[in-house]
Amino acid sequence: MPLVTTKDMFEKAYAGGYAIGGFNVNNMEIVHGIVDAAAEVRSPLILQASSGARKYAKGVYLRKLVEAAVEDSGLPIALHLDHGADFEICKECIDNGFTSVMIDASHHPFEENVAIVKKVVEYAHAHGVVVEAELGRLAGVEDDVKVSDKDAFYTDPEQAAEFVQRTGIDSLAIAIGTSHGAYKFKGEARLRFDILEKIGGLLPGFPIVLHGASSVPKDLVEKVNKYGGNMPGAQGVPEDMLRKAASMAVCKINIDSDLRLAMTGTIREYFALHPADFDPRQYLGPAREAIKAVVKHKITEVLGSANKA
Known about the structure:
Elements: H1 7-16, E1 20-24, H2 28-41, E2 45-49, H3 51-57, H4 59-73, E3 77-84, H5 87-95, E4 100-103, H6 110-126, E5 130-135, E6 140-142, E7 145-147, H7 157-167, E8 171-174, H8 193-202, E9 208-210, H9 218-226, H10 239-246, E10 250-255, H11 257-273, H12 280-303
Parallel strand pairs: 1-2, 1-10, 2-3, 3-4, 4-5, 5-8, 8-9, 9-10
Antiparallel strand pairs: 6-7
């Protein structure tokens, strides 16, 4: 089975009231952990490469790892460019085998955002690739994406409907209160489900995406801190909120920080308990299993995509 696009995934997810996980990948162990979890519960997957991942691992290595994952698991897997900064980066990834790209021109004025996205859509669709874009701005930090609280703003539903119609995109990332990184909220977590509901009404059947949607589980943060980390006050999106979003118009939920926490906490613990060990396989193996456990939980209890492959 070759890599697939998200088109069929999203049609089924929208009709079924569940979401597909967009999991960021950076190396072999992360790919293994995600795919092994999905294979056990038969879930489709979107594996994402950010700018930082492509700098760290090189795009061709990530593509080959994901192609190997398809061959090994037999799952429907899309390879997605996360936060493509411009047309040239999107074109490069399309030309090199990605089946889905995100063009993030949300920092530009509306008309410029439309023009940039439309150019990417025309090229991508001509090559059988689907396109995600963003309207509204999420706060937080993720690789090259850095947005302060004062520069973040919610997505306007009417503008979202116009944006989809004029650009021809295949999915839309919106801002309803999620944010990038492990420090998403000060005080009580809150998502603007009224905005999501209105967008769903204006764009019936159209797949919506949530970025910055890791839950930052307290047990994972506590493990990091217990073994020498320093992450006071880290807080993510409650899982019941994500499940509610998945039952509405949201068909893709991005998850990255939770994987990082699981991996980092496990490695820190291993180093503390086994100071004489120096074989990377000794600590990367447990880290891979920790990622697998997180992803399996997300698929079965949050996304609802188990047995949908």
